TrEMBL record:
InterPro entries named among the record's database cross-references: Beta-glucanase-like (IPR000757), ConA-like_dom_sf (IPR013320), Glycosyl_Hydrlase_16 (IPR050546)
Pfam families: GH16_XgeA (PF26113)
Alphabetic keyword roster: Signal
Superkingdom of the source species: Eukaryota
Protein name: Endo-1,3(4)-beta-glucanase-like protein
Region (Disordered): 162-198
Length: 330
């Protein structure tokens, strides 16, 4: 009995190590985000000039709105703040379910843009950071000015609470910015990979009608892919929200994090999925980062005085699909 059990466990683990075919676990559309995700009305851990509101406030103030096929989450774009006020009202939501090995597919029509904005779609184990690790799938620089082309591509990164590095040469279309994922040794900048195309975020992403981000996490690798809405090469299982997906057909990922010199199976916990919109904070608010984007004054003063600057600081999410069962591997 014991022997049989061990054989079963070993073959199950072997299946988990490779990409392949995955079956749907959870689908989130519209109202599902109100029922199955939590509004995190907490202080922003990145020190942003925001006040994250609870679900009741978000719905009352229309900072969150759902329909049968849409989730909108936005920043307050009407209130002028004084320096003694709290931050600008914003939204941060987290899936109630935490996921271990899985594939996530998000269909996004619009992401927040504008000076001071720092939107993110990412996964972490909140209660266990950094020990549980962090994967930033969409993490956008503040360098977005409507109508001006001074934008940088999306950055995908891992943040790990222990020794973890990536090989300098690997099979990905993006450009590595750092190969050291350990939050303790690199000022927590993580091992980031820049997407190859500017339509991966901000105004260019939005003007194309958004697109799809996908991530596959197994015991031996993390891969992230992106297709713009207008990219005819998007796999049909991604664009249709199919009940099974085959990551072997998705081509070279934008970012590839293998376990060559990082034990991915131990550095990541089960992670919750998070959408947020912060303003300024540790990254977007750095004066050199903020001003090099062509944004005026200081980040906090801009946020306080310019509610109209946030009219495009919203997420429009069509769906999130999470595939949790690997049914066959390559
Ligand atoms: C709330 O936001 C949605 C989405 O932007 C919009 O369609 C709707 O008209 C807004 N409702 C109100 C009462 O402003
Ligand atoms: C990478 O993952 C595979 C599959 O789980 C495992 O056999 C291998 O030991 C791992 N390599 C490292 C360096 O952790």
């Amino acid at each position: 009995m014991q022997f049989t059990l061990s054989v079963f466990v070993i073959s199950a683990l072997a299946l988990e190590t490779l990409g392949g075919t995955w079956t749907i676990g959870d689908t989130y559309v519209g109202q599902d985000f109100l029922n199955s995700w939590s509004f995190e009305a907490e202080a922003d851990p990145t020190g942003g000039r925001v006040t994250y509101v609870d679900q009741t406030t978000a719905l009352n103030d229309n900072l969150t709105y759902v329909s049968s096929d849409t989730l909108i989450m936005r920043v307050d774009d009407t209130t002028v703040l004084s320096s003694s006020d709290g931050g600008r009202n914003s939204v941060r939501i987290k899936s109630n379910t935490a996921y271990d090995y899985h594939v996530v597919v998000i269909d996004v029509r619009h992401m927040p843009e504008g000076c001071a904005t720092w939107p993110a779609f990412w996964e972490t184990n909140d209660g266990n950071w950094p020990a549980g690790g962090e994967v930033d799938i969409v993490s956008v620089t503040p360098s977005m000015i409507e109508g001006v082309n001074s934008v940088s591509p999306n950055l995908v990164s891992l943040h790990v609470g222990s020794t973890c590095s990536m090989p300098s040469s690997r099979d990905e279309s993006g450009t590595p910015q750092s190969n050291d994922c350990d939050v303790n040794t690199d000022g927590n900048s993580g091992c980031g990979v820049q997407n190859p195309t500017t339509n991966s975020f901000g105004p260019d992403f939005n003007s194309a009608g958004g697109g799809w981000y996908t991530m596959e996490r197994t015991s031996s690798e993390v891969k992230v892919w992106f297709w713009s809405r207008t990219d005819g090469s998007v796999p049909s299982d991604v664009s249709s929200g199919a009940s099974t997906v085959n990551t072997d057909n998705w081509g070279t990922p934008a970012a590839y994090f293998p376990n060559t010199s990082c034990d991915l199976s131990s550095v990541f916990s089960s992670n919750n999925i998070i959408f947020d919109i912060t303003l300024c904070g540790d990254w977007a608010g750095q004066s050199s980062v903020y001003s090099s984007a062509g944004c005026s004054g200081t980040c906090v003063d801009y946020v306080n005085a310019n509610p109209g600057g946030f009219s495009n600081a919203y997420w429009d999410v069509a769906s999130v699909h999470v595939y949790t069962t690997e049914t066959s591997s390559s």
